[in-house]
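Example 3.2
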Amino acid sequence: MNIQPSKWVAGVVLGATMLMVLVACGGDDPTPTPKPAATTEKAAPAPTATPVPVVEEKKEEKKEEKKEEKKEEAAPAAPAVTFEGKTIRIVANSSPGGGTDTQGRVMAAFMSKYIPGNPRVVFTNQPNKPLEYLFSATEAPKDGTYISWNSTPQLDFGFLESMNFIKRSTYEPIGSTIDPTRSWMTYDPVGNLGASAATSCLKDYAGKDSTGGGAHNEFLLADEISDITDGDATFLATVFAADALNLPFRYFAFDTVDTNAVKTMWARGDINSTVRSSLWYRFPVEHPTWIPSGLMRQMAGMGPGQLRGNAQTEPHCPDIRNELNDEQTYIYNSMNGPTNYASKALWLPPGTPLDIAEALAAAFEKALTTDEDLKSKYAGVAGEAPGWIDRKTLKEATLENEKLLEGAQAVVDEQKATLLAKYFPQYISG
């Protein structure tokens, strides 16, 4: 950009110098050139240009083309999606106070300014996962004013008669926010399982009938009764791994088992372990002394990906699949992968128009990837900043994992029948 102006300036200077030379020369010439004598003849009239019709036609054509271009430019665009004057409900399939709930509330508080039309955004809860799944698929409005906020995709619901075989892939995804890799964590391992638990991993208790001491002397876990009775594949994967390793464990069923309920049950001594994705990353923020003091110990990585280190330490123990043979690993992955490939995901009801889905996806993506205040506050309750998975990626992953689950559905059904009969006969009717 500096080259052109400098050349232009040099040209001006050179021209001015030459003009000064010429003027100087003309003024000092001792023999000026004589002026021609005047004549009485009239000067010939200046020639008049003859109009060329073809040229004028081309000009007219160009004018017409420009008019057409202006018409095309002025054509009204399709109306943009707006939610002005509307109320958007974000519905969590979890109870108030848990991880899904608190993360969703933080997110919802920022969303009005990012959604076209700046609508009112409210956050509510429907802890009954099957009921929320069916409502969002069959009764919820399809105008973008109802958004499901789920801890996991519940992909297996699409293969259940009780869910009318409505596939998750028929929903319109918006995106998801959290690494779905889960961890087996034990609260007060020494107090509940014995002194050896301070440095042990889940694999160290394979084939044993007790943990060797402590108040409980075995691993005690809890899940929601709806997940147990429906044979939820995520729940089944944990039971399968514990059964395959022949661990000393027991499972209890409760109406609600979200993060808040788990902590309450730990404090009361009802259970001592849980298998979840986000808690491992949240402990350094929510309970910074628990891991360094040994009050909380990670006993195994539970997939589907590899557990990462949190803000305080690397995982204490390896992935559970390291202890399974090839056949067991296939069965475990068939149950665990498809239902846990995404965590903290946003979904719109089946049949939501694409322009609405894309407008909302763009709004959430912008908020969760660019708003530093939102990202910071989200990390404060989640233990990790949102790792946004966009609409297209989530849609493709849903279809791929649905096919995987469909191909392994016979395996899942077999394990469901076997494990429920072995550990939960009281929930099998007839």
